[in-house]
Amino acid sequence: MKVTAEKNEKIGAMTFASVYPHYLNRLEKNGRTKAEFHKVITWLTGFDDKTIQELIDEKATFKTFFQKAKLNPNAHLIKGVVCGYRIEEIPDEFELYRNCRYLDKLYDELARGRKMEKILRVEKK
């Protein structure tokens, strides 16, 4: 599937707070914790628990969420298909969309029971 400017804008306008409870619901049903999810978010964005809560409270859009983030230098190691999109094939012009799919992929791996050391990617030497 191809990302369009409209899709990029649409996801950018969504609020992180509107999706966050759904993330937590699925994770908890699958035996994972809020703390584990926050660890994943922190790895990807550099946000601590306080910042994550502030972004939820201020109903930050995904655009704002990722503008404030300091993306992990190993984020490019996140590969695979999410929602029909191959992450590594999303063009640079749709960086926001790719960043959202990075988060979705990490969340999905956590929900499926993947080990944390596999989720939080490290460049092989």
Textual characterization of the structure:
The structure is a single chain. This protein is mainly alpha-helical. The protein has 7 helices and 2 strands, in the order αααααββαα. Strands 1-2 form a two-stranded antiparallel sheet. The chain is globular. It comes from Maribacter confluentis. InterPro entries: SP1917_dom_sf (IPR023204), UCP033199 (IPR014580). This is DUF2200 domain-containing protein.
What are its keywords?
two-stranded antiparallel sheet; about 120 residues; about 5% strand; globular; mainly alpha
List the helices and strands and how they pair.
Blueprint: H1 5-13, H2 16-29, H3 34-45, H4 49-57, H5 62-68, E1 81-82, E2 85-86, H6 95-111, H7 116-119
Antiparallel strand pairs: 1-2
Helix pairs in contact: 3-6
What string gives the helices and strands in order? HHHHHEEHH
Residue stretches low in confidence (pLDDT < 50, at least 5 long) are none
Q: What is the typical, i.e. mean, pLDDT?
A: 95
**Number of discrete helical segments:** 7
Rg (CA only): 14 Å
What is the SS-derived class? mainly alpha
Proportion of strand residues:
under 5%
Tell me the major beta sheet.
2 strands, antiparallel
Q: Biggest sheet, strands in spatial order? A: 1-2
Q: Please estimate the helix content.
A: 55-70%
- For the termini, the CA-CA separation is 33 Å
By DSSP, the count of extended strands is 2
Q: Which shape, going by the Cα principal axes?
A: globular
InterPro entries: SP1917_dom_sf (IPR023204), UCP033199 (IPR014580)
Protein name: DUF2200 domain-containing protein
Pfam families: DUF2200 (PF09966)
